[in-house]
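Sanity check record (used in CI):
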Amino acid sequence: MASTSQTLTNSAHEPGYTCITFSRDGRLSYTGGSDSLVRIWKMDKDQYQEPEVAYEAEEGITALASANDYWLSGSKDSEVRSYPHGKPDLHGLIMNAAGVCVRALAVDPTGKRVAVATDETTVKIIDLDEITNVTTLTGHKKCVRKVTWHPSGTLLTASGADGTITVWNISEREPRVDKLLEGVIPAVADTESSEFMHDCSAVWHPSGQYFLTGSRTHEIVAISRPNWEKSSTFSDANTTGITTALALSLNGVYLASACKEEILVWSTQTKRVLWRHATSPNALTTQIAFSPSQNLLAWADTEGILTWWRDPIPTGSPDPVKQSTAGSVQGVPLKRQSTPTLWGEGPADAGRGSGAGDGDDYGDDWIIDDLGVGMEDDKQDGPPGRQSGNGFVKEMVSITKAQPAFQTGSTPMEGKKRYLAYNMVGWIDVTDQDTHHIVNVGFHDLSTRKSYHFSDPFKYDAGYLGERGVLLACPPERDHPAQVLYKPYGTWSTQGDWTYVLPVGHHVLGLAAGGERTMRSLRDPSSSGGDIQGVGNIVIATSAGDLTFLSGSGLERIVLGLEGEYVTMAAGEEYVVVVHRPGATTIDGSQGLMATLISFEDFEVLQAKPLPIPKGHVLKWIGITDEGAPAIYDSAGYAHLMINFRRPNRAIWARLLDTNTLERKQGKDESYWPVGLSQDTFTCVILKGRQEHPGFPRPLTQELPVRLPFRNKDAIESPIAEKLARERIHINLARDALGDELTSSELDKREIELDKSIIKLIQAACKIDKAPRVLELTKRLHFTHSIAAASQLAGFYKLIGLQEKIEAIKRWREDGPTPVEEARERRRELEQEDAYMAHPKPFQDFKPPPRVERPSLARPTGVVERTEFTASNTAVRGFRARVAQTPARSASPEGKRKRDEEDDPVSNGPETDAKRRAVEEFDTAISSPKREEPSK
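Expected output for Minichromosome loss protein Mcl1 middle region domain-containing protein:
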C-alpha cells in the first residue's frame, strides 16, 4: 500500500552519480555528487536549509563514510579525504590511489578502520589513527565495486565487478578468504555504464547471521552463515526490474529497496512489501539509507536529487530503531533446548509461560531472536552476552570456526599467479591470462622427469604432483561441469592423458595421486620398471561427500562415503591418508580432525587416528616422508610423524620437531612453509614477517635439521640421546616394512651405528657411577660384542659389581632369543591379540553352529578285558606248565637257612622268574592271585 508520510526533496547536486550517508549519531547526513561537492545536511531542519559544503575534491564524489569523529570522502581524483565530524574543513589525506578512481568506503563498527576499494584489484584497510598501518587484501580478478563490514568487525565483504562476493576474515593477524561466492550478483565490467552505478553491497543484518544483496536474477536474496548458502528470497508479484539500492533499519526489522521508479519497505520476517513510495520517473536511485536515530529514510538518484522520507514506518508498527520483542527478523530454525537443573531432573525454569511447560515445546519452527531481546526469559541458559553501545547483537556462544578444505602446497592467487602444488617432486604454478591460464609443471630432479608447460582454457584451480603423474581439477562454470585431468609421466605412449568428468553441480574438494617411486628415469624400464610399474592411483574428494578411487589409466575402482567433512589428503605408494572432521569443532578451539589411512590394494582402513593439533590452531600441511610414513605440520609450528602405522591399531603420533625452538628463529620474525620431511631434514620455504605463503619468483627451499623436542639441556648426553631416539624411530619404521624377515644388511649396519651411540652414553654413565642407567642402556644393545664392550667399560672404571651384571646380561642374551627373534615373536603376539577383530560380528555368521562335544552323552563302547586266561595268552599258560615240572634248585649257600616250601606260599624259584619274564614279555598278561595260607 502507498504511504501518505511526508517527503522532502532538494536538488543537492548536478545530474550524475550521487551518494549519501548518515553520521553515526543520526543528526547529520552527507551527500556527494558528480559536481565534486559534499554537502552537510542537518536532520532537524527542512529541505530549504543552506548546507555547509566541502570543495576540496577535484572530480566527482564516488563514496562517503562516517566514523566516530570524522567523515570521509572518496572521489575520482584518486584521493580519500577526512573531515571533522559535521564540519567541511579538511582534516587530512587518508590515501592516494595513484591515478585510479575510489569506488567504495566502509568504516568498521568501532570507527577505527576504513576499507577502501578502487579500480585496482586490491582492497586496502587503513587504520584511521595511524594511516601508515595498511592491510592489503589481494586476490580479486577485477575491481571491487562495494565493501561492507560485518557487525562484529571481523569479516569484510567485497563485491567485485566480476560478479563475485569475497568474504574476508579480518580477525587474525593475516586476513584470509572465508568464502568466495560466485554467480550471486551480476558481473559488470564497464565502469561508465548505468548498471555499474547499482548498489551491489552485501548488506549485513545486525544479527550478523546473514546478509542481503540484489541478485543477477533481479531478486533480493539472503546469504546465511556459516554455510554461505541462499536461505531466503524477497520477491513481490507487483514489482519487476533490477534492485538498484538496499538498506536495513538499525534493528534489522525493515528492509528498504529501490527498484525502477519506487522505494519499497519490506518486512524481514514475512519478506513481503509493507509500504511503497514513488520516485522521480526518469532517475535511477543510486543509494539509500535508514537514519540510525529516528524514523527517517533518505536516498539519492542520478538526477542529483536528495529525498527524505519522514516517518516511513507508520505509527503502531514496530519502531525501525528501537529493539523490540515485536520486531520480526530473519532467523535460523532451531529446536530450543531445555535448561537442566543442578541434578539433571528437568527444566530449571518451568514457568516460562504457556506452551513452554516442559521447556521443549517450541518445536522445530522456533526462531532465534536476532535482536537479542526475545531471549530475555532465558538468560540463565548461557554465559552473559555482549551488548555494545551502538546496538549490535549479543554474542551468546563463541564457536570455533571449522577449518575449510584445502590442497596441500597450494597458495591463493596474487598478481595473477599462484601455486597449485609444491612438494618434494616439484611444483605446479599457473599464470592468469584473463581468458585462459598458463600451467607450468617443474621438477626438482630434471634427470628423472622433464619440465613442461601448456595452455589451460578450463582454468584449473587444484593440482597434485605425484610420483607417476600430474593431477589437475577445474571448478564447474555455468553449464560446464567440474572435471579432473591426469597427465602421466610415461613417454612410450602419447595417449596417456585422460579426463574424468563429475556430475553437474559437483565440486572437487581435493586431489591425490599415489604410486611407486622411480629409481632413475621412466625412460629406462630395466632399472626402474618404467611404465611396467603402472601409472599410479588417483583419489578425488567431491562435494557429494565421497572419495572416488581410480587407477592411473582412468579406470574407476570404487566410491567410498566419507564420514564427516573433508579437509585434505596426501597419497603414498601403498595408501592415501585422508584428513576429515567426523564431528564438529569444540567451543574451546579444537578442530576435531581425524586422519584415516586407506589401502590402495583392497581399500582397508589401515589406521584411524585423531590429529594432535593444539587447541586454537589448524592443520597447515600433510605429506608422506621418504620412509613412507604420514607426517603433518600445524600452525603452532609442530611437525608430527605417525609411527607404527603398519601395525594394526598401534599407530601413534610422534612429535619430531618444534620450529619455535630452532636456533635460527630466536629473535627473528619468521615462519616456515613445509615442502617435505625426512629422517634428518625438514624441507621448507622460510617466510619473513607476516607472509603466509611463498610468492614469485619461486623462492629456494631450505633444509632445517630435525630435532626431537627433548628438554634435557646436557651438552654431552642430550644430542646423543636425541639422535638415538630419532634413529630408533626410523629403524622400527624400516623393520615394519620388511615383512617376516625383520632384518637386512642395511638394518644391521644402522643398528651397529646405534650401538656405538649407546656405548657413548654407557661411558658417560660409568663416569658418574650411574649403574641403573648403564644396565638399562646395556639391555638396549643389539649385538653381544657390543655388550662385551660395555663390560670392558665397566671394568675400566673399576665397577666390578656392575661388570658382573653386564656379563650376566651377555650370557642371558647368548642363551636366549636374539632381538630379531624377540621382534618376530612380539609381532605374532600382536597378531593373536588382534585375531578377535577378524571374527564375524553377531548376525553376520551364517555358518552352522560348531559341534559341541558332551562326554556324558557319548555312545557306550565295549571294553575287552585281557588276562592270562584269554585266548591271546595261550603261550604264557603253556610256558608256566612246563616250568612247574622242572626240579627245585639246590640248597642255599652255607650259612643261610633254606626255607621250607610250606613256609613260603609262593615259590621263589624259576617258576617265579619265568612268571616275571612272561609278564614282561607279554604285557597283556595278568598274574594269578595269591593262595591263602592254610590255618594251623
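Residues 163 and 448 are 44 Å apart (CA to CA). If this sentence no longer matches the regenerated C-alpha cells, the check is flagged for review.
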